[in-house]
Design brief:
Layout: E1 2-5, H1 6-9, E2 10-13, E3 28-32, E4 35-40, E5 50-53, E6 62-64, E7 69-71, E8 75-80, H2 88-97, E9 104-105, E10 111-112, H3 114-117, E11 121-124, H4 127-166, E12 177-180, H5 181-184, E13 185-188, E14 203-206, H6 208-215, E15 225-226, H7 228-237, E16 246-249, E17 258-259, E18 267-268, E19 273-278, H8 285-304, H9 314-318, E20 321-324, H10 327-366
Parallel strand pairs: 3-7, 14-18
Antiparallel strand pairs: 1-11, 2-8, 3-4, 5-6, 5-8, 9-10, 12-20, 13-19, 14-15, 16-17, 16-19
């Protein structure tokens, strides 16, 4: 097994910026940083080329072009200059696995320059081994992408069901009764918990990052806690989250709202997390969660534009108009969504297993 510096086996090419007014909606794909942006009437590469994004938040992200493509200045293209053939799929995967810390410069604006990237080392087995590694990873990656598409379809199905049953909640095209959110639910934040109050174990304490992940149905591992006695005092003084309540990070443009579904105790950070206490005799919490997601998707920036950093505040939430179809119809919708979410959860478990398999295969393939 040989270890090569990229500069030994590849020409590293960085091209001039292609003005946006030169782009079109047909012809050949143009790759900018880590994604395809548009099309151009010429191409520079006949075959797929591996790219390393070299500026900003996407710095060191890896991509591969399509056949007959153009590459702009925010990426560095790796062009094989050795007589020995290299499987570009292998190159893509080994770079995804590789750490770029030693070749990144800049603090305010991270970047990778060609001279630094040339020094990055990668293992290069024989071509047959490269093909075998790439084939295995391709198979797993294909299954991952298909499973992600299925999960996306469940989200689209939930949205479609909502719009079919209730219409657009912003225009209220079906003419449902409308009330302000503050008229039908309590909207509030938590009592402040100070750093000195945090302990190593007992009742989980969630910041906006944990709530954001929970709202996306992601697993979390609590790292901050408060004592049982502290939790009891908070429960008596201010109340704590209960089943059917909704929690959301104060910056929530994509509607990542967490619905409390059991009585496991936890508390949350003030200011950056907002709580909606739902009275099920007024409104179904699954319906409310989904209607808020739809409202945020279409109107979030106008709702949150009154505040710094487009944050949701208690007073802005209270003034949101909520259409109120009959509770029986809301509950029928909730039953449908519960079934859809159950199917989605099964797909997410399979996706998690596939991603673990992918990481395991990457480790086995590149731990030479």
């Amino acid at each position: 097994m040989k270890i090569y510096k990229l500069g030994e086996i590849f020409d590293l090419k960085q091209w001039k910026h292609l003005p946006l007014d030169k782009l079109s909606d047909t012809w050949y794909s143009v790759f900018w940083a880590n994604w395809k942006i548009w099309y151009y009437h010429e191409y520079m590469y006949e075959t797929p080329v591996v790219l390393v994004s070299c500026r900003g938040a996407k710095c060191w992200a890896i991509n591969m072009t399509e056949k007959q493509s153009w590459v702009t200045w925010n990426s560095i293209a790796l062009i094989n200059k050795k007589e020995e053939k290299i499987d570009n799929r292998y190159l893509y995967y080994v770079l995804v696995w590789t750490t770029f810390n030693n070749v990144i410069s800049g603090s305010a604006q991270p970047q990778i320059i060609v001279s630094n990237l040339k020094t990055l080392q990668i293992p290069l087995p024989d071509l047959t081994t490269q093909h075998a590694i790439a084939d295995k990873l391709d198979q797993i990656q294909s299954l991952i992408e298909k499973k992600k598409q299925v999960i996306q379809h469940t989200d689209e199905l939930a949205k479609s069901v909502f719009l079919e049953m209730f219409g657009d909640p912003v225009t209220n095209e079906k003419g449902w009764e409308v009330k302000k959110l503050g008229e039908i639910c309590d909207v509030w934040s938590s009592k402040r918990v100070f750093v000195d109050d945090l302990v190593e174990y007992w009742v989980p304490f969630y910041r906006w990052t944990e709530v954001w992940r929970l709202g996306a149905n992601q697993d979390i591992m609590p790292t901050l806690f408060i004592t049982k006695d502290h939790y009891k005092r908070l429960k008596e003084e201010r109340g704590v989250p209960k089943v059917w309540d909704l929690l959301m990070p104060s910056i929530c443009p994509d509607g990542r709202i967490f619905r409390v579904e059991n009585n496991s105790p936890f508390y949350f950070k003030d200011g950056r997390v907002l709580r909606i206490s739902v009275n099920k005799t007024n409104i179904d919490s699954i319906y409310l969660k989904n209607i808020l997601k739809e409202i945020f998707r279409s109107s979030y920036w106008s709702i949150a534009s009154w505040t710094t950093f487009a944050e949701l505040k208690i007073f802005t939430l209270k003034w949101i108009n909520i259409p109120l179809p009959p509770l029986s119809l809301q509950e029928k919708f909730a039953d449908i969504i519960t079934d859809i979410e159950a199917q989605k959860a099964k797909h997410q478990e399979v996706l998690k297993d596939l991603e673990e398999l992918y990481n395991q295969q990457m480790q086995e393939s590149f731990s030479f």
